[in-house]
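Appendix B, example 12.
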Amino acid sequence: MPPATFGFLVYSLRLQAELSLGLLGFGEEKKKPDFHLARHHIDLLAMLQEKTRGNLTLEEQRELDNSVTELRFRFIQARELDAKSGDSAAASTGQ
């Protein structure tokens, strides 16, 4: 097991958010994003960011800030992509 570090905690929550957004897949099966779960993991990171501000090393703060920013951006991208694929699926079925 990796050591229990702040960086590993951030990595773990980030990985869970990416999995929930469907950014990481295993095998050929493409899972539909779970936006509620992804938002929960992003919110956990944002809460951690707020509660630890001023108490982290520069490297830890950058890692956390970058993770929150990138995940928020990817969340928006995934929502837009999901909406577009939903529109095209409805169009192809004639709805």
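The mean pLDDT is 89. The first helix runs from residue 6 to 20.
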